[in-house]
Design a protein that fits this description.
- The structure is a single chain.
- The chain contains 14 helices and 16 strands.
- The chain is α/β, with parallel strands linked by helices.
- The mean pLDDT is 92.
- Adenosine-5'-diphosphate binds next to loops.
Length: 461
């Protein structure tokens, strides 16, 4: 079995956390942790396979023993004997719990959103006690909580839950405020609970969001997101080698970047900070002295027109068409409310001027639900004749507050993408004028991102 990381890298990262927290001894600090590298992905994929009957009971047990051994190795590396004993006991308890659930899923042959959230919650439920134990070992008094125990209460959309804002703000403050005075609470990122205490998760990458929620609740001075790159970059460094770190970015730009696929931040993680005006810093655990990126309200004198190019893959372009749509009011509204009913996130919208079609972009995972609901709502076929889709597309967005009032950005975007021999399937500008986004075939995403990054960012440097 191959995880995305090694115990040594995990231990180094946690030792880094202890060093960072230790160096802030005069401050009140809450630590929000994510799972060890690759663990959440692995839990997702194993749960899926198990529900399809692809793993025997023996294989499930061996997966669990490997997963826990990786955590034990990290704990043994970092914790004193006394702290280790306690953590190993907790790990043992979780190991039995996970085994029961996974074997249950195998027998039932079904994986629901609720059981998925339960299974993947183990990533953070295993890392948090180790981080908390490591802090205790290095002399920082610490206790750990699940997000739910820390007070994050959500609706029951198990895999992409939204916090119930007022009660979450109050409960988190109540639970953490006093503890903060003489200890460092460690809170599991990503996982939360609904009003009945059933485990929910905040969506992939949700630890950033947990940190922002906790920061807002306790009126933090700053929220720091620690990751594995030197901050928010001008584009995904895995796709474009010319990517550079952005020193300062505004909330709205960071939000757009995250919304359109900048994996470095969870899209919702800026909102709570923005509401309370809390600055957010994104820094590299492996280079803690580097300046990272500072996210603030407004950036004065931003020189760049385009600050970043983001790439979102796994998107689907759905086109709803029919000449009967011409001049009929409310087709778009009916479509959007149908999709909203199914809680489908619409990423982009465009309507041809003839009104004979509407194109929308959604996440590929929502395609079946979207097609079903749209065909159901327009079942008489008088208005909508066809629903077509292309499920291998990507959205490339150029982002920058400096685009507001700057002419010719869309023209430059078109020219440079077409020079790279990439066909643009759809284009849209956000009303905030902070982004212009286009849809291309997924196979062309890298080429388009490279061309746009070169045109708007590298050439300027
Ligand atoms: P973590 O586990 O620290 O939360 P993530 O994998 O969620 O890390 O996010 C960090 C990764 O996001 C980086 O390693 C990088 O490959 C990718 N990434 C995509 N777009 C950007 C961007 N604009 N700036 C920085 N990193 C980005
Ligand atoms: N572990 C979760 C995930 O992989 C949350 C996070 O990393 O922020 O999505
Ligand atoms: Mg992340």
């Amino acid at each position: 079995m191959k995880f995305g990381g090694t115990s040594l890298a995990d231990a180094q990262r946690i030792a880094g956390v202890c060093k960072i927290v230790g160096s802030r001894s005069g401050d009140e600090v809450v630590v929000v942790v994510s799972a060890l590298a690759g663990v959440t992905d692995m839990l997702f994929s194993q749960a899926q396979k198990i529900s399809e009957g692809k793993l025997t009971e023996e294989e499930i047990k061996s997966f669990i023993s490997e997963l826990f051994e990786r955590h034990r190795v990290v704990a043994r590396e970092l914790l004193s004997e006394k702290d280790l004993e306690l953590v190993l006991m907790e790990l043992e308890r979780f190991s039995l719990e996970l085994e029961k659930i996974l074997i249950g899923i195998r027998y039932v042959g079904e994986l629901t959103p609720r059981s998925t959230a339960y299974v993947v919650s183990f990533g953070e439920r295993l890392s948090a006690p180790i981080v908390s134990g490591a802090l205790n070992t290095c002399g920082v008094k610490s206790v750990w909580f699940t997000g739910y125990d820390a007070g994050i209460i959500t609706d029951s959309r198990y895999e992409k839950a939204s916090p119930i804002w007022e009660s979450t703000m109050q409960t988190v403050k109540q639970r953490l405020e006093n503890l903060l005075k003489d200890s460092v609470p460690v809170v599991t990122g990503f996982i939360s609970g609904d009003t009945l205490g059933r485990i929910t998760t905040l969506g992939r990458g949700g630890s950033d969001y947990t940190a922002a929620i906790v920061g807002a609740a306790i009126d933090a001075e700053e929220v720091w997101i620690w990751t594995d790159v030197d901050g928010i970059m001008t584009t995904d460094p895995r796709l474009v080698s010319e990517a550079q770190t952005i020193p300062v970015i505004s909330y709205i730009e960071a939000m757009e970047l995250a919304f359109f696929g900048g994996k470095v931040l969870h899209p919702k993680s800026i909102e709570p900070a923005m509401e309370k005006g809390v600055p957010v810093r994104v820094k590299n655990t492996f280079n803690p002295d580097g300046p990272g990126t500072l996210i603030v309200k407004d950036q004065e004198k931003a020189r760049e027109v385009v600050k970043a190019v983001s790439v979102m893959t796994h998107a689907t372009l759905v086109t709803i068409s029919g000449v009967g749509m011409i001049g009929v009011p409310g087709v778009a509204a009916k479509t959007f409310s149908a999709l909203a009913e199914e809680k489908i996130n619409i990423l982009m919208i465009s309507q041809g001027s003839s009104e004979a079609n509407i194109s929308i972009v959604i996440e590929s995972q929502d395609l079946d639900k979207a097609i079903n609901i749209v065909t159901e709502k327009f079942a008489d076929r008088d208005i909508v004749r066809r629903v077509d889709y292309n499920n291998d597309v990507a959205i490339i967005a150029v982002i920058g507050a400096g685009m507001k009032g700057t002419k010719g950005v869309a023209a430059r975007l078109f020219t440079s993408v077409s020079k790279a021999d990439v066909n643009v399937l759809m284009i849209a500008q956000g009303s905030s004028e902070v982004n212009i986004s286009c849809v291309v075939e997924e196979k062309d995403a890298k080429k388009a991102a490279q061309a746009l990054h070169h045109e708007f960012i590298t050439k300027k440097a």
